[in-house]
Design a protein that fits this description.
By secondary structure, the protein is α/β, with parallel strands linked by helices. The protein folds into two domains: 23-264, Alpha-Beta Barrel (TIM Barrel), CATH 3.20.20.10; 269-388, Lyase, Ornithine Decarboxylase, Chain A, domain 1 (Beta Barrel), CATH 2.40.37. Helix content is 31%, strand content 24%. It contains 13 helices and 18 strands. Strands 1, 11, 12, 13, 14, 15, 16, 17 and 18 form a nine-stranded mixed beta sheet that branches. Helix 4 (72-80) links the parallel strand 3 and strand 4. It is globular and about 65 Å long.
């Protein structure tokens, strides 16, 4: 997308505003499938927690993607978006047996990540196809909050508990059809990924009726100009060869599954915000925008870096600014960042705003959530309206007058 298109959308739909480029989502999906074209059976389960707008789900469905859901609500959204139950995988963490039962009743593939629920579910439903999530104890991820494969992680069943796991399966006569792992997000070193894959292969040898192996995702995307990213093409070449060799050893053509979220939608997203005030202090120039971490929490939560440009003055001289929001506590998007000269009323564009941005937004400070727009075939289509005061009041129940006066 070009700056003029984004400025036109900000003028048309207001700010703050999320914009998603359909063509970028498509190109990322095709890049991943092409990298693993040597695998006979490949399945992409989009990790919808990254961005769960129904229009985005429909777009990915039409590209051939399936879904990875982590809650009953995400499962229901997927069904609402037109996915069939067999196109959805349920990979929760720490949910109740009741929620797993509810998802099972919908006909969705269950992925279980703890021994307690595994034994309870297997005892009650020994013939139901189940996938098991293994924790390979491989430290990977760009931040401790998104590194989920280490030994103290809450995710998955420890690979060191494999004998206990196998005993539960043998005692319950469970139908284990898949093994899954996920080591974290922002994985750059593909050798770490390949090392973890070997652990998954070793675990898989304990189960004779597998249909698929799920390698998770966590591929790193570039967050700024000249940033490094996961070499998907090299990973595809090496892992495909190793996976095909394992299938030959196993005696069966298994399905290779990935569950990318950020990889598919991050670079497709743009967050547009208007500058409310330019404020000079003794040592800093602040650009205060009409948004805050209620709309884009990643810089405060993960310390993530989003490339920011002034699309109202793209050829302006660069100066140093700290970009901050309007939330009444520390609310910083960038500190002392070189950005084209900013004036009040300018529109700033945050790149890589497609993943874990709107989906993690809130009504903190009773602020409205922004609108979302999908840019497709050279046009902007509103796919979520800007919230209103009525949305804030929805589901709130005032005290009856007789109680309030007591």
């Amino acid at each position: 997308m070009q700056s003029k298109d984004l400025l036109q959308l900000a003028d048309q739909f207001g700010s703050p505003l999320y914009v998603y480029d359909a063509e970028k989502i498509k190109s990322q999906y095709e890049r991943l499938t092409k990298a693993f074209s040597k695998v006979e059976k490949l399945r992409i389960n989009y990790a919808m927690k990254a961005l769960s707008n129904v229009a985005i789900l429909q777009l990915l469905r039409d590209l051939g993607s399936c879904l990875d859901a982590v809650s009953i609500q995400e499962v229901q959204l997927g069904l609402h978006a037109g996915y069939s139950p067999d196109q959805i995988f349920f990979t929760p963490n720490g949910v109740s047996l009741e929620e797993i039962e509810e998802v099972h009743a919908l006909g969705v593939q269950i992925n279980i990540d703890n021994l307690s629920i595994l034994e309870q579910f297997g005892t009650k439903h020994p013939t139901v196809p189940v996938c098991i999530r293994i924790n390979p104890h491989v430290m990977a991820g760009g931040n401790e909050n998104i590194s989920v494969g280490h030994i103290d992680s809450k995710f998955g069943i420890s690979v060191h508990q494999l004998p206990h796991l196998v005993r539960i399966v043998e005692n319950t006569k469970m139908n284990i059809v898949g093994i899954h792992m996920h080591t974290g997000s922002d994985i750059l070193d593909i050798e770490v990924f390949l090392y973890a894959a070997e652990i998954l292969f070793d675990a898989a040898r304990n189960f004779k009726n597998l249909e698929f192996l799920d390698f998770g995702s966590g591929f790193k995307v570039p967050y700024k100009k000249d940033d490094i990213e996961t070499d998907i093409e090299e990973l595809g070449k090496k892992l495909s060869k190793r996976f095909n060799a394992f299938c030959e050893e196993y005696g069966k053509e298994l399905t290779l599954i990935f569950e990318p979220g950020k990889f598919l939608v991050s670079e497709a997203g743009f967050f547009l915000a208007k500058v409310n005030v330019v404020k000079q202090t003794t040592s800093t120039v602040f650009a205060g925008i009409d948004s805050g971490f209620n709309h884009l929490i990643r810089p405060m939560f993960y310390g993530s870096s989003h490339f920011i440009e002034n699309i109202s003055n793209p050829k302006g001289k660069e100066r140093f600014y700290s970009v901050v929001g309007y939330i009444c506590e520390t609310d910083t998007f960038a500190s002392n960042r070189r950005i084209q000269e900013i004036a009040e009323g300018d529109i700033l564009c945050f790149r890589n705003a497609g993943a874990y941005c709107y989906s993690m937004s809130s009504n903190y400070n009773s602020r409205y959530k922004p609108a979302e727009v999908l840019w497709i075939n050279g046009e902007g289509h509103l796919i979520r309206a800007h919230e209103t005061f009525e949305d804030l009041l929805k589901n709130q129940i005032p005290l009856p007058a007789s109680v309030a006066k007591q």
